[in-house]
Amino acid sequence: MDSLLLRSFPNINNASSLTTTGANFSRTKSFANIYHASSYVPNASWHNRKIQKEYNFLRFRWPSLNHHYKGIEGACTCKKCNIKFVVKATSEKSLESEPQAFDPKSILDSVKNSLDAFYRFSRPHTVIGTALSIISVSLLAVEKISDISPLFFTGVLEAVVAALFMNIYIVGLNQLSDVEIDKINKPYLPLASGEYSFETGVTIVASFSILSFWLGWVVGSWPLFWALFVSFVLGTAYSINVPLLRWKRFAVLAAMCILAVRAVIVQLAFFLHMQTHVYKRPPVFSRPLIFATAFMSFFSVVIALFKDIPDIEGDKVFGIQSFSVRLGQKPVFWTCVTLLEIAYGVALLVGAASPCLWSKIFTGLGHAVLASILWFHAKSVDLKSKASITSFYMFIWKLFYAEYLLIPFVR
């Protein structure tokens, strides 16, 4: 029986016969090793199946190798031997060559992670601010209830989408230029954390800039197109690291870039987009528009100054001469708070001078409440804690959003 079994393995050359008398049991070990090695034949699933069948046959027809073999001619006596035949994982993998099961949860997690990375890359607080500001300024062009029409919503949508594309270009370019700084100041951003490669960032930034200009051109509104173009130029000059540019290194130039975009371009260009392109009316500079431009000039200066306060550590390392680096965090912090309080005081006077009762109430009461909340919150900030300062910076952006909710009531 043993000889029959051994002959069933074609690769066994030196173990063609095995007897329980007069044979050295070391041949049995050779047999086992040869069988073991035969399970590693690559890319031969038919051979693996053959080995599996022979192994099963051996297992059931030769139930035990646990015997005492005694040599008749004085050969050595082999102790009890336990021999196990094991099919390695490589054979099992080839035997079970079915494709991996579809895992919806894994795909869903991957999609969530991708969306989260893009959400952080787009700097959502700036996206929300851009969308709210355009909607608010567009409402200033509304003169009567009938102006709220599908034409109005179409004009607003065109402006918002084109501006958001440009917004993502600007904040994305800033991250591409500040990867090393962000590893210190904002390590959670996708480029700084390594979630996005530099090439991925370049692709996103280039794509959104092209989409923005394409949409502005297709719409055919010159105020909208020029708003996008000026934003593109100033955003590029602010961030890109080439000679004579990278204006963020210089505190005054950096503040002027942000003020020009947030206070002037957004207010005037998008108002004129609605006034001249959507409603086909002659350009006018109304009292509410002048107020919005002046108030947001204050607010833009505050944002330009305050955004550098929590980033002072990385800016010092890379030679960014912001006001926070030059003057210190505390003086800049209280300068920002003071400027905002002055702006709210002016807004109270504008509200009081309005000929409309409902404008007096909403404008006056709204700005009084915001001024009180600002002062109360500012007194609780720990200027030694980066987390506390960053939280207050996000609070300033919330005040920025709230202001655009009040601007349409200014009449």
UniProtKB/TrEMBL annotation:
Q: Output the Gene Ontology terms for molecular function.
A: prenyltransferase activity
Membrane-protein topology? Multi-pass membrane protein
Major location, coarse class? plastid
- Could you tell me which PANTHER family the record lists for this protein? HOMOGENTISATE PHYTYLTRANSFERASE 1, CHLOROPLASTIC, HOMOGENTISATE SOLANESYLTRANSFERASE, CHLOROPLASTIC
Entries under NCBIfam families matching the protein: PRK12887.1
UniProt-recorded name of the protein: Homogentisate phytyltransferase 1, chloroplastic
Which residue ranges does UniProt annotate as crossing the membrane? 127-145, 151-176, 196-218, 224-244, 251-272, 284-306, 332-351, 357-378, 390-410
Gene3D superfamilies cross-referenced by the UniProt entry: UbiA prenyltransferase
- Family per record: Belongs to the UbiA prenyltransferase family.
Keyword Signal assigned to the entry: answer is: no
Chain segments annotated as coiled-coil in the UniProt record: none
Q: Which UniProt keywords apply?
A: Chloroplast, Membrane, Plastid, Transferase, Transit peptide, Transmembrane, Transmembrane helix
Compartment list: Plastid, Chloroplast membrane
One Pfam family cited in the UniProt record for this chain: UbiA
